[in-house]
Specification:
Helices cover 52% and strands 14% of the residues. It has 292 residues and is an alpha/beta fold. The protein has two domains: 162 residues, Rossmann fold; 118 residues, N-(1-d-carboxylethyl)-l-norvaline Dehydrogenase, domain 2, CATH 1.10.1040.10. It is globular and about 65 Å long. The model has no long low-confidence stretch (mean pLDDT 97).
Length: 292
Amino acid sequence: MTSRKLAFLGLGVMGSPMAGHLARAGHAVTVYNRTAAKSAEWTQKHSGKTAATPAAAAAGAEVVLMCVGNDDDVRAVALGGDGALAAMQKGSVLVDHTTASATVAREVYAAAKARGVRFLDAPVSGGQAGAENGKLTIMVGGDADAFAGVESVLATYARAVTLMGGPGSGQLTKMVNQICIAGLVEALSEGIDFAARAGLDVERVLDVISKGAAQSWQMENRGKTMAADQFNFGFAVDWMRKDLAICLAEARANGAALPVTAIVDQFYARIQARGGGRWDTSSLIRLLRDAT
């Protein structure tokens, strides 16, 4: 792959390994993180430079990629006085991997277009393990020419990169992903709890049904840890609640009915109230296991 000048903004559990894949692929990567110590730690592991602001990191970059927390973070890092767009050159591309709203994606798209910069909303699925192993699924919204120009860069840390439609389409697709996961995790929790209370060998049950129509990523990757009451890893409940709030707000706007999603969101609120905000989302089973 031809080396390109890139910037990566946000070095959390997802962003740090994603930026690392880019550096290992031979790209010239400048990183920015709100906590400067994380940027320094990243450069100790990888070739690259650090910058004190998003704008400083983005200056001169062909492609600027970001992975931050929520809509407000996206606005601050992309649109703020020291944000990426303040320094990006015409014809460059800004790619946002944050799971955020379609509204903010369209907002940043319009602001970028006004400056001659192209923008893609490109949330990811696959969790920390997917980021570390370079096996993420990336769903993209934006213009086809911008996508074509960066697809090979995104493929550095993905197993699938797909353009879903215009601005906001990537975020809408990620909402579908989270809606489906919420229902799956609750159903898996109920099934495992039922099996245990019925006196079955839970691991054997999971082994059998995972070879049939009930099979899912959640079952394959979380079933046994759920049965073992292990939740100190993976995608945190706090993050899922943020994502489900986005889904529910969008559903109110477009008229979609999400009754199961709304219920599961409240179940996650109960997990948070127990101090489990940083537990893996599979911790839903705790509510059933602890029930009298």
